[in-house]
Amino acid sequence: MFALQYDAVAQSAYPARTIRIIVPTASGGGNDMVARLIAQGLSERLGRQVIAENRPGAGTIIGTELVAKSPADGYTLLMAPAAFVTVPLTNKKAPYDAVRDFAPITQAASLPSLVVVHPSVPATSVKEMIALAKAKPGQILFGSAGLGTQPHLSMELFASMANLRMIHVPYKGSSPGLVDLLAGQLAIMAANMPQTIPYVRAGRLRALGVTTASRVAAAPEIPTIAESGLPGYESVQWFGLLAPAGTPREIIARLHKESIAILRMPENIARLAADGAEVTTSSPEEFAAFIRAENAKWAKVVKAAGIQPE
User: Fold this and answer.
1) What distance in Å separates the CA atoms of residue 136 and residue 130, rounded to the nearest whole number?
2) Which of 17, 126, 221, 237 has its CA 20 to 30 A from that of 156?
3) How far is CA 290 from CA 99, 125, 219, 280, in A?
């Protein structure tokens, strides 16, 4: 009885000190943007400092491992990108399990990507690109932000569904790949919309389609990959808030309540929309189910592509 009372008192006092939201990617990206927005809002609503701390490296593994091995007390959280699920599927040294080692709080936002080609590529639609790649098996080069990243697996899903054989050229981040795509050294690439849309608008790249299931309000003229020639295709860059496994349910519930309130504020919805992102809140249970579904989906893509975990 005393122990139960003690736990209730301890949890009611939460938070008693600074909370860290670990961002396993470099500053400036969509994951970082969402983490800082939530951190600012939580600081105001919880009455304690909440900071977003970038810990990039090893394809998001460094920051993710830090959280997985932190005490399950609600003071060290993770703002995870989609690579949270896909990296362990392609890196056998990944020191965490996306399903087992974390307690989901809420999905936060999603960011559409564009499949883009260099203007010299003789394809103006997904159907034409598929026909071109089939006519040149093993000759089409596509770039990505690195092995196992969402841009990489988005293209592997494209190739798998269309029964294509293309050559993957991994980079350390999307930006170096886009540089080579703009120079015509690559034919095709998937990258997030904020990165690519300026080049599409300037005529330096051609958009074949968005990777989401429906068209995006920021660029309604661009069709989806699914409607443009590959029915059923969908690949979304998402971001979500998690805590170490074993974090008390009361703490998860409070962080969930406050985080979704922050994300659903009209000014924050507008702020994210300006960068091409959409608020996608969920319950902890819904987010857990989503992570399991993503794990199963991308495991099949990795197997179909013949990717051997390094």
Assistant:
1) 10
2) 221
3) 10, 30, 26, 12
